[in-house]
Amino acid sequence: VHAVCPNKKNGDHIATAIHDFEGEQTYSEKRGHNFAINYDFDAVNTEDYVGLVIPGGRAPEYLRMNERVIEIVREFDRVQKPIAAVCHGAQLLAAADVLKDRLCSAYPACAAEVKLAGGQYADIAVTEA
């Protein structure tokens, strides 16, 4: 399993975000743990992988602006390799235009993006998917 991030190399670290529901109408974010990158993003070759995991949280909001990330998602879709997207990960799937006529669970706030991308939103807990 390789953990990669645009503009990061093997040995770099990224800060994760931890969310919590603190009684407001949405979640709050706090700085999480330092997460080690163990492979160079620029060296990713989709042929070397059997599947793709897209993180949730705020990451997809930024990842979808990176053309190479979009290419990677589209390539996994084109060759029909499994893609798992958690929480806000559907934002990246929508940006890559791979949701048409597909069922997709996501954080409820992403339902409109799933539908606008031609997908069918499903309210399924990540533990039930």
How would the blueprint of this fold be written?
Layout: E1 13-20, E2 28-36, E3 52-54, H1 59-63, H2 67-78, E4 83-85, H3 90-95, E5 103-105, H4 111-116, E6 120-122
Parallel strand pairs: 3-4, 5-6
Antiparallel strand pairs: 1-2
Structural class: alpha/beta
Q: What does the radius of gyration come to?
A: 15 Å
Strand order of the largest sheet: 1-2
Low-pLDDT stretches are: none
Percentage of helical residues? 10-25%
H/E element sequence: EEEHHEHEHE
Q: Work out the number of β strands.
A: 6
CATH topology of the largest domain: Rossmann fold
Largest sheet: 2 strands, antiparallel
How would you name the CATH homologous superfamily of the largest domain? Answer: Class I glutamine amidotransferase (GATase) domain
* CATH arch. level architecture of the largest domain: 3-Layer(aba) Sandwich
